[in-house]
Amino acid sequence: MKRSLMWIASAVTLLFIAAFAPTVMAQELISTHQLAQSVDLRDVTTAPNGAVSGTIINRTGMTVRDVKLMINYAWVWRNDFKPGPDSPGRTVYITAAADIPPHGEGSFRYQPSPPLPDRSDGHFVPHAHIVGFTQMVPPGA
């Protein structure tokens, strides 16, 4: 009898907490295609030292912030038939600091740290991709 009273008390407590808990908006996951239709990159340039910069385009009607970029430094061996034992390629994730207004643009710049090694057995091919962002949805929208 004592166990069933404890169970009932626990259930009532949980229902009470759930009834008065604040409503939380869930994050919406979108496809890669939808991502490209919302936020995109333009004029991405790379420097010999590995610096990557470009323009972030906001195609939505809401402010976008915390744009997360993946910068991949792919290593291409000079001799693909005899690659070395250690590929210096790497991938880094950065967050662009700018708030980008609706239908506006912002910029990003990344300087690799530590610097990319200077090697004669191949070269780096950097690529930048958007992997996420926060869209500022007004209350009640």
Strand content: 35-45%
- Give me the Rg, rounded: 24 Å
The residue ranges in which pLDDT falls below 50 over 5 or more consecutive positions are none
How many domains is the backbone divided into? 1
**Which fold name is given in CATH as the topology?**
Immunoglobulin-like
Query: What is the total tally of β strands?
Result: 6
Strand order of the largest sheet: 1-2-5
CATH class call = Mainly Beta
Give the CATH architecture.
Sandwich
Structural classification:
alpha+beta
Helix-residue proportion: 10-25%
**Global shape:** elongated
SSE succession: HHEEEEEE
How many alpha or pi helices?
A: 2
Main pleated-sheet profile? 3 strands, antiparallel
Distance between the termini: 49 Å
The overall average pLDDT, rounded, is: 83
Give an overview of the whole structure.
With 141 residues, this protein is of the alpha+beta class. The protein has a single domain (31-135), classed as Immunoglobulin-like, CATH 2.60.40. The chain is 18% helix and 40% strand. The protein contains 2 helices and 6 strands. It has helices at residues 2-20, 32-38, and strands at 39-46, 52-58, 64-77, 90-96, 105-110, 122-135. The strands form 2 sheets. The protein has a 3-stranded antiparallel β-sheet with strand order 1-2-5. A hairpin with a 5-residue loop joins strand 1 (39-46) and strand 2 (52-58). The radius of gyration is 24 Å and the shape is elongated.
